[in-house]
Amino acid sequence: MSTTPESEATREAVRQRYAGIARDTMAETAEASEASCCAPSCCGTESLDATTLAASIGYNLEDLSELPAGANMGLSCGNPTAIASLQPGEVVLDLGSGGGFDLFLAGPKVGETGRAIGVDMTPEMLALARKNLHTYREHTGLDNVEFRLGEIEHLPVADASVDVVISNCVLNLSPDKPQVWRDIARALKPGGRVAVSDLALLRPLPPAVATMLEATVGCVAGAPLVANTERMMREAGLVDIVLMPKPEYVETMSRRNTPLYQSLAAHIPEGSTPADYLTSLDITARKPAA
């Protein structure tokens, strides 16, 4: 993977932003503060309750109520476990697993004979996720979830060892997305599949937005064009690619007047809305069996 000073600066900005979110969440849960339901998230949901956001994008309220405190930090832009069709005995890998939100939901689906592995590059996020493992084990009776430190461009798993790769609003943050898709293909078993929710662009952003660091860390400026996402996946060797735009997420963020989306709206041409440029995208694909 090639690196540049700019790409490393972006990576470090992302790392520091998410380290801060993890520290704040751990402090809030320790104090049992009502403020813990809201977080300065990736996609600018500072003023939106995390449970409300998750329910609005398809998560089951009963499932959410069973999650360890602080696992849901409002960082989602989709529901990858809903499109993953997880089966007992499978190995599922979550890229950018954060506090364990999607992984704690995936664990019961793969069951005691399966394995759910989370990868995150931020030690503070791993500390939060691992702190919540005890609660997960108590609630489910399962010991099938683990968290590993690593970057999504170089996943800390063996070749052809994973049945399903999931991720939620993380791939857009990588400064080397083609490498992410190549490593996803490397990690998947033959016939393995992808179920990712992410942000993508319907059209190029105005230059003023594309150069804003806030937008990069906030999942906007780093989002690829939808067509480029498909191209990168095909070049990585994935097939049966389906890209399903989900405009409801961006429309919700815009209606809620969250700070990032206020800033985005201020920099796009008059008469346009953020939803004209940006969409949440459900992405599915598989690695050829042969």
Structure description:
By secondary structure, the protein is an alpha/beta fold. The chain has helices at 5-30, 50-56, 61-65, 80-83, 101-110, 123-131, 133-140, 177-187, 207-210, 213-217, 226-235, 248-255, 259-267; strands spanning 91-95, 115-120, 145-149, 162-168, 188-201, 239-246, 278-286. It has one domain (5-286): 3-Layer(aba) Sandwich (Rossmann fold), CATH 3.40.50. The protein contains 13 helices and 7 strands.
Quick recap of the structure?
Helices cover 40% and strands 19% of the residues.
The string of secondary-structure elements, in order, is: HHHHEHEHHEEHEHHHEHHE
Largest sheet: 7 strands, mixed
When the domains are counted, the total is 1
CATH topology: Rossmann fold
Portion in strands: 15-25%
CATH class: Alpha Beta
Please give the number of β-strands.
7
Name the average pLDDT: 85
Rg from Cα: 18 Å
Low-pLDDT runs: 32-42
- Shape type: globular
Q: What is the CATH superfamily?
A: Vaccinia Virus protein VP39
Keywords, separated by commas or semicolons:
290 residues; alpha/beta; Rossmann fold; 7-stranded mixed β-sheet; globular
List the helices and strands and how they pair.
Elements: H1 5-30, H2 50-56, H3 61-65, H4 80-83, E1 91-95, H5 101-110, E2 115-120, H6 123-131, H7 133-140, E3 145-149, E4 162-168, H8 177-187, E5 188-201, H9 207-210, H10 213-217, H11 226-235, E6 239-246, H12 248-255, H13 259-267, E7 278-286
Parallel strand pairs: 1-2, 1-4, 2-3, 4-5
Antiparallel strand pairs: 5-7, 6-7
Helix pairs in contact: 1-6
